[in-house]
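Troubleshooting log. The previous structure file for this entry was overwritten by mistake, so regenerating from the original sequence record. Sequence copied from the archived sheet and checked twice against the printout by T.R.
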Amino acid sequence: MMKSRLLVQIREELRARLLRLSKAAMEAHAAATDVGSKAESKYDTRNLEASYLATGQARMVEELAESVRLFEAFELRAYAPTDAIEMGALVQTKISGHPAWFLLAPCAGGLEINCEGCEVTILSPASPLFQQLHGKRVGEKIDQPNLLIVGLS
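Regenerated output below.
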């Protein structure tokens, strides 16, 4: 089934991103606290810049770790074609006549996963398209973008 494979791929991608970002954050922290990065003059901001980078990356690691935790617990139920679109729905659409797939998920919005030859974009609740799709049914249209809902699973 596409949804179970998709969920596995999302979890793998999020874990891989978390690993890469954690490594980068540790390197940024090491650079910020390195004795050699001490300011040589009042105009030397290397240490301050490294500190800002380390802080930002640490925050991103926390957010990504939360996404991993949410997706580890996330279950995708099957939807009937007559059901309303809700969190966890895999929605097949046509945007200006071109096929597009979207998964409504609690986080990781914007992540694109290629699953079984289909490019699936994850939509989180903050996305305007998530909000437009939520509650709609197969056969309904959304004007902006020119989108037709053609399938639901």
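The CA atoms of residues 89 and 104 lie 6 Å apart. Archived copy saved in two places this time.
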